[in-house]
Amino acid sequence: MIKLFVGLGNPGPEYELTRHNAGFWWIDNVAEALGLTLRDERAYSGELARANVNGHTVWLLKPQTFMNLSGKSIGALARFYKIAPEEILVVHDELDLDPGHAKLKLGGSHAGHNGLRDTHQHLGTDQYWRLRIGIGHPGHRSEVVSWVLGKPPQAQRDAISDCITRTIRAFEPLAEGELEKATRIVHKNPAKPKPPKTPKAPKPVAAEADDAASSATPTPPAADPTAA
Predict the structure, then answer these.
(1) Sheet with 46-53, side-by-side order of all strands
(2) Angstrom distance (rounded) from CA 156 to CA 88
(3) What is the DSSP letter of 108?
(4) Is the Cβ–Cβ distance between 95 and 148 less than 8 Å?
(5) 201: exposed, middle or buried (C-beta count within 10 Å: 0-12, 13-18, 19+)?
(6) What is the separation of C-alpha 141 from the centre of its chain, rounded to a whole number of angstroms?
(7) Which residues carry a binding-site annotation for tRNA?
(8) Domains of the chain, with CATH numbers?
(9) Which phi-psi region, left, alpha or beta, contains residue 89 (left: φ > 0; alpha: ψ -120 to 50)?
């Protein structure tokens, strides 16, 4: 079961709406759904909230160290509460998934993500869970930094928000150790938007006139007032 839920991001209003803060967005949505307030905890260099899920104590954490030092916050809390790496879920932005998509996985490389890189170092292993929230890729490696630190346009933001709304339904199964159920929820494909209806082509004017003529009710002849 997951005892520590971590969202990665950068502190400060200038980063609040950037793609790199998708992990923060996820934790904020969970906290709101549970009616919790994250409070600054200097001992763990982060914002922290405690939740009770059907008798299980779990923690929500947003490191306030900036992305490339996230592991410092995660490691400090995990050591104090004796939380094993496999009981930790790190939620982060993922370049290799389109907005609206998410993946749940245990272990693996950091793939160049500085938040994961530092988490690897402070936990001493890669065997912790990750929830990868798709933000899309700019198409060229040289544009990655400006992409993750940029604000997504409204359509992408809506897709990411829908993804977060969908995947936070996995929070309770994860906290209770129902990992297969959580995986099914996370990996469910986002609903595809319905294509707009194609308007019917108007009938030709001549055809409309013919139709009107053929459907008109014949007018009876007027009565002759001179008839007996």
Answers:
(1) 39-41, 46-53, 56-63, 4-7, 88-94, 129-134, 102-106
(2) 28
(3) -
(4) yes
(5) exposed
(6) 23
(7) 15, 66, 68, 114
(8) 4-187 (3.40.50.1470)
(9) beta
Known catalytic residues? Answer: 20
What angle separates helix 22-34 from helix 154-167, to the nearest 10 degrees?
A: 50
Contact 26/37 with Cβ under 8 angstroms? no
Q: Is the dihedral of CA 102, 68, 173, 31 positive or negative?
A: negative
Task: Please report where in the chains the tokens 């009770």 appear, as a residue.
Answer: 52
pLDDT recorded at residue 190: 72
For residue 198, the 8-state DSSP code is P
pTM of the predicted protein model: 0.82
Distance of alpha carbon 10 from alpha carbon 150, whole angstroms: 12
Question: Which is it for the CA torsion 117, 122, 124, 125, positive or negative?
Answer: negative
| Tokens representing residue 109 in the block | 């490389």
pLDDT in tens, 34-90: 999 999 999 999 999 999 998 889 999 999 999 999 999 999 999 999 999 999 999
Lookup: tokens for 191? 């609903």
